[in-house]
Amino acid sequence: MSALLALLAEWGRNAPYQTRVQDLFAGGSGRLNGSTLLNPASVLLSGAVDQLFAASASDWLWFADNAKVVDQVNNLPSSGIVTFE
């Protein structure tokens, strides 16, 4: 539960979108999430094919791009962020 609260604290802080994504993915100097990161080591793949749909310019989509699972991303605006696993 403390890891989830740390992630929520970082996501809700008053910082630019790109900064919060970077801090959650790889860490940064002003982050509130401490050592809790969202990266391929901490996010598990479901093993199922997913179709992801972007709804706004501030979407951060995660998907697998490997031989076992091929996810599909739809409607991603140029300012959206995609993380490949």
Explain what this protein looks like in three dimensions:
It is a single chain. By secondary structure, the chain is an alpha/beta fold. It folds into two domains: 1-43, no CATH class; 46-85, no CATH class. It has helices spanning 2-11, 17-25, and strands at residues 51-53, 60-63, 72-74, 81-84. Strands 1-3 form a two-stranded parallel ribbon. Strands 2-4 form a two-stranded parallel ribbon. It starts with a helix and ends with a strand. 7% of the residues are buried.
Percent helix range: 10-25%
Q: Widest sheet: strand order? A: 1-3
**DSSP helical segment count:** 2
Outline the low-pLDDT stretches: none
Query: Using DSSP, what is the number of strands?
Result: 4
- Number of discrete domains: 2
User: What is the succession of H and E elements?
Assistant: HHEEEE
Structure summary:
This protein is of the alpha/beta class and 85 residues long. The chain has helices at residues 2-11, 17-25; strands at 51-53, 60-63, 72-74, 81-84.
Write the layout of secondary structure elements.
Blueprint: H1 2-11, H2 17-25, E1 51-53, E2 60-63, E3 72-74, E4 81-84
Parallel strand pairs: 1-3, 2-4
